[in-house]
Amino acid sequence: MYDAIVVGGRCAGASTALLLARQGHRVLVVDRSSFPSDVISTHFLWPHGMSYLNRWGLLDQVTAVTPTHTVIDIVNDGIPLSGSVPTSLLREHFRDLHGDDSGVVQSYASVRRRVLDQILVEAAAKAGAEVRTHCTVRELITEDGRVVGVRGRAADGQEFEERARIVVGADGRNSFVARTLDLPRFDERPRCTFAYWSYWSGFDPGRGQIHRRGRLGCAVVPTNFGQNMVLVWGPSEWAREFRADVPGNVQRALDFVSPELGELVRTQGTREERIYGTLDQSGFLRPLHGPGWVLVGDAESAKDQCTAIGMTHAFRDAELASAALHRWLTGESSLDEAMAAYEGRRRSQNSAAYYDYVCTLSEMRPYRHDELQLFVALRGNQEETDRFIATHADIAPVSEFFQASNLFLLNDAAKESSAGYSVFDDFAATSRTYQQNLFA
Ligand SMILES: Cc1cc2nc3c(=O)[nH]c(=O)nc-3n(C[C@H](O)[C@H](O)[C@H](O)COP(=O)(O)OP(=O)(O)OC[C@H]3O[C@@H](n4cnc5c(N)ncnc54)[C@H](O)[C@@H]3O)c2cc1C
C-alpha cells in the first residue's frame, strides 16, 4: 500500500513524486516510457520554471549542461522589445501561490526533455520514490466509487496491481486516468497552432528570440549539445498546406517572420535531427480532483504551446498538489479541505484569464492596429515592457497589464517617444496580405 501512485513521470509526475517522497511519503511513480527520452514538445522555461528547479535543488544540474540567459527578445511585426521579468514580480508571484519566495532566479533556458525529465525522475528516485519505467497503467481499481489503485503491465510483460491512498494523474493531455474516469472537458478551444521544430548547430543567436509576423511565429533558443532549437508555428487552418513540404515551409516561414533569422539558419545552420511537429494542441480543462484521484499538469489543463508555459505550469501544480496532499497525509487536514485548497489556488481569477489569453493568442489572428500601437508604446518604457513580458509568461496578472487605465496611461506616456513611428505604411493592405495562406 503506497501513500500515492503517480501515473506519468515527467514534468508534472516526477516533480510531484519527488516532493511527496522528500516529505517522507511512500510513492510509486510509473511511466510507460523509459528515460532519457523526448516528448512531442519544445522546452523553453521562463524564470518561474527555472525558480521551481532551483527551489528543489535541481537547477545546477540543469545549468551545468544548458545555456541560460537573462534577457529575452520579443519582436511583433517588426517592433522589437527586449527585457526580463522583474524579480519583484517573480517574488510576489511565488509568495501569492506558495506562501514563500525562496529560490527565485531571474534566468531563461531551453532544456531538452531527454535531459530535464531524466534529472527529475532520478531526483524522485533519490528522494525515495519507487520509479517503474516501461510500465503502463491499463486499469484503475475502484471500490465504492473511489479510486484505490492501478493495474497494468510492467516492463517484463507481467501484469501488476498496486494500491494507494491517492492516485495522481500526471499522464499528459490524453490522460488515461481522466479518460478512464470519463471526466468531462470544459472550456474547450479547438482553434490552436500547428508547430514544427528541430535542432541546428553552426550559429549563435546569443539569447532566446521570439518573433511574430502576421499569422506566423518563430523562435530560436540555444539549447543542449551546442545546438539551437528553431521553432515555427501558425494557425491550424494552414496546417494541411504546411505539411505538404515541411522542410521547405519551415524555411519559408522563417524567411517571412524574421528574414535575418531565416538567412542565419539557411547560410550558417546545419540541421542535426529530423523535424518534429504536432497539430493537436487544442485547449481544454478537466476537473482537478475527485474520490481517490487528483490531476496535475497537462492532464488537467491542456493549452497551446504559443506561450511556452506548460512545463512551468506542471511544476506549479506539483508544488501545489504535493503541499495539499502532504497536509492530508499527515492528518493536518481532511482530503476535502486539502483538495479545496489546491483547487482554490489553481482556479483563481487570473488562471482563467491567462487560459483565455493563451487560447486567444493561439488563434494567430494578425495583431490589430491598437495592439501594435501598444507594442510601439512600450518601446523605451523598460518597466512596462518587463511587466508585459511577465504578463505574457503568467507571472503578473493578465487583468492588471491589460486593464484600460493602464493602456491609456501607456499610450499617453508614449505620445512623444513613439511619435513618427508608424506601424505600417498601409495597415489595411498589410493586414489583407497577412490573411493569405503563405503555404497554399
Ligand atoms: C509543440 C509543443 C511545444 C511545447 N513547448 C513548450 C515549451 O517551450 N515550454 C513549456 O513549458 N511547455 C511547452 N509545451 C507544453 C509541455 O510539453 C507540456 O505542458 C508538458 O509536457 C506537460 O507535462 P506533463 O508531465 O503534464 O505531461 P507529459 O510531459 O505529457 O508526460 C506524461 C507522461 O505520462 C506517461 N503516460 C501516459 N499514459 C500513461 C499510462 N497509461 N501509463 C503510464 N504512463 C503513462 C507518458 O509516457 C508521459 O511520459 C509544448 C507542447 C507542445 C505540444
UniProtKB/TrEMBL annotation:
Keywords: Oxidoreductase. It is an enzyme of class 1 (oxidoreductase). Its EC number is 1.-.-.-. GO terms for molecular function: oxidoreductase activity. Pfam families: FAD_binding_3. Residues 2-348 form the FAD-binding domain. The keyword Oxidoreductase applies. The keyword ATP-binding does not apply. This is NAD(P)/FAD-dependent oxidoreductase.
